[in-house]
């Protein structure tokens, strides 16, 4: 998200780097400059982190627009959190390869996940606290919230 807060930028960077490091050789993690195409609505979005495993499919050969993400991350902002949680998630569900949606708070150490189930439904998981670890089923990787939130300064009253 262009114009994000320092916390938003730091969390996005940390998450991209952590996924890239953990998934080296089997998946690629992209920062927010990579667009994700949703054919059913005929437009693209800019998730904060996009993970693609296996062969990448680029929209009409444009190497900055992927069509087959497996995992998408949004760092929640006050101005867009409802849109990210609802409309954007609903739209992303049209992507056949899409298996996991991750929402990361920038105000407290908290990660929400929606994981696609074999019946087409979505399982919800929440992980809270800097000492916690979160497992990402779609890519078989575990990250610590301490690492995701490295160098993020929370306001005292929020903790």
List keywords for this structure.
tt1808, chain A; 3 helices; alpha+beta; globular; 3-stranded mixed sheet; 11 strands
Describe this structure in words.
By secondary structure, the chain is α+β, with helices and mostly antiparallel strands. It has a single domain (6-149), classed as tt1808, chain A (Alpha-Beta Complex), CATH 3.90.1570. Helix content is 21%, strand content 31%. The protein has three helices and eleven strands. It has helices spanning 6-22, 81-92, 145-148, and strands at residues 27-30, 35-38, 43-45, 49-53, 65-66, 71-75, 100-104, 110-116, 122-128, 133-136, 141-144. The strands form three sheets. It has a six-stranded mixed beta sheet, with helices on both faces. Strands 3-2-5 form a three-stranded mixed beta sheet, with no helix packed on it. Strand 10 and strand 11 (141-144) form a beta hairpin.
């Amino acid at each position: 998200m262009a114009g994000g807060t320092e916390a938003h930028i730091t969390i996005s960077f940390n998450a991209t780097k952590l996924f890239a490091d953990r998934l080296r050789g089997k998946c690629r993690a992209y920062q927010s400059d990579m667009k994700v195409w949703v054919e059913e609505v005929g437009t693209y979005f800019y998730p904060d982190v996009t993970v693609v495993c296996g062969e990448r499919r680029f929209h009409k050969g444009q190497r900055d627009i992927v069509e087959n993400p497996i995992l998408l991350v949004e760092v929640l902002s006050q101005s867009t959190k409802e849109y990210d949680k609802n409309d954007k998630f609903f739209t992303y569900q049209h992507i056949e390869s899409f298996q996991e949606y991750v929402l990361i708070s920038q105000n407290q150490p908290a990660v929400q996940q929606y994981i696609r189930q074999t019946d087409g439904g979505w399982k919800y998981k929440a992980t809270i606290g800097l000492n916690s670890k979160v497992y990402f089923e779609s890519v078989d990787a575990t990250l610590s919230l301490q690492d995701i939130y490295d160098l993020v300064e929370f306001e005292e009253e929020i903790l």
